[in-house]
Amino acid sequence: MDELNIALVGCGGMAGAHVEGYRDLYVRGLRVFKIKATCDVSEENARNKAQAIEFFQNSKPKVYTKLGDLLKNEDLDAVDICLPHNLHHSVAIECLKRGIHVIVEKPMAITMRAAKQMIDESKKSSKTLAVAENYRWEPKQRAFWWAIQKGLIGEPRIVLWTATSWGPKPWGWREDKLMAGGSWVFDGGVHWADLDRYQLGREAVEVFAATHTFDPVKDGVKVTVDDMTMAIVKYENNVYAQWLWTRATPAKGMWTHIIYGSKAALSDDGLQIQKEEGRVETQSVNSLTYSMRKDMPPEEVERFFPKGSTNTVATELYDFYSSIVNKRKPEVDAAEGYKDMAIPLGFYESALLGRTVKIREVEELKLEGYQKEINENLGL
Questions:
Q1: SS3 for 182?
Q2: What is the location of CATH 3.40.50.720 in the chain?
Q3: Which CATH number is associated with domain 136-297?
Q4: Structure pTM?
Q5: Of 139, 141, 171, 345, most Cβ neighbours within 10 A?
């Protein structure tokens, strides 16, 4: 089994999940990566991740605080980028130019223009550019995809996404539009967009949204992103999604993800099928996942869950590895990551203009009003 030399660039919070993903692969015998180095402006963060990697890899990655030094001194096949959003494009492009494969945490970039530059460089270098979009690798979400493909809910109709919480304290760089690009509805919204597109098998056509910042100052910190977004997404063939995300709602939190079809619904309760006389028949998520595994060819089950892994970061990292050695596109490549970004960024463009926005307007860079300030700050 070929081994790829890789470096972890960015050693903050999400990098911990990546380290655990590498460990999961390693203990399952999938020792396909040699983590040669860690890099972060915080030497302490880089050292901590290197020590955690040494524990299972039996060799300690070198520690760097400057990307230039890392790229100059290490012979790398790939890099794993876990940086703040505003740094994704510049670091990815620099690595691609040097002939290095890249997997980058979502969102792929901070604006559509930045993401397009990444795609252009990936094509020019002929190197893999994958997006770490781990939600779709969760067994439950795979089972939902399978159920829809099998027609178990009938024709898809409506998707509901709700996440309400209370966040009175500032959330670091994620409160800064120029670093984060937007609120969690962009940061995590690409997850929701990716699941909608993947599970429904349909592309978004248009969006309409309203955004607001109820708490513009938190503990003396100025907040320059929204803390509430309500949106409607219209997908192909008249499928609709309703999104509500906010961290400005005290006392009563809520989490909802429901996919309604013409004869059944999918949610955390499992598959609920509408029967005659108002009776509802329920198949649990675990049972649904078992049915999927039993129905699918063994090689497809192995692709979804290599060596039985259900660690979503481990499985996306293994897919990245497999795409490189087998010379195929990763499941979530740059084109997928680009389309995922267009939906939540379309919300911001819609809210600014006060009208429905066509997704192609966002993807073709015809609407960049909300993104203009960010692009100018980045010199794009």
A1: coil
A2: 4-134+310-331
A3: 3.30.360.10
A4: 0.95
A5: 345
